Amino acid sequence: MDMLCPGFSQALVVSVLMVPLLRIVGLRVFSMASEGYAAGTHSAAFVTCPNEQVAKEIARGMVERKLAACVNIVPKITSVYEWQGKIEEDSEVLMMIKTRTSKVPALAEYVRSVHPYEVAEVISLPIDQGNPPYLKWLGDSVPE
To answer: Less CB within 10 Å around the terminal CB: N or C of the chain?
Structure first.
């Protein structure tokens, strides 16, 4: 093939090597178009509590300490789980917490320090997309 089209192999290799770079550049341009949000900068964390009063106290502490921008408290969920070899079923309250991904370890530490459960549930998922003004507010509310 090089005999028929000199430089074709080189151009093909350069093109193949450029694909990852172009993908990164494209993602950055898309990120800038969505007002500068980089996917995964913020997270949604979830914590279960035995009742609404405990959830409100923990939520207020997280917001006051700038560990969370907002905490939604979802009442009356049912949790089914295994604990110490026995299947349990309990009524609980779910906290949906919006925060910076970098704050999740501190948030988890705070929850463990104040939560009444022996093993508190603290899990998080990265936020890939969202309403740009909301994501900006979230970032402004939870400083680095």
So the answer is: C
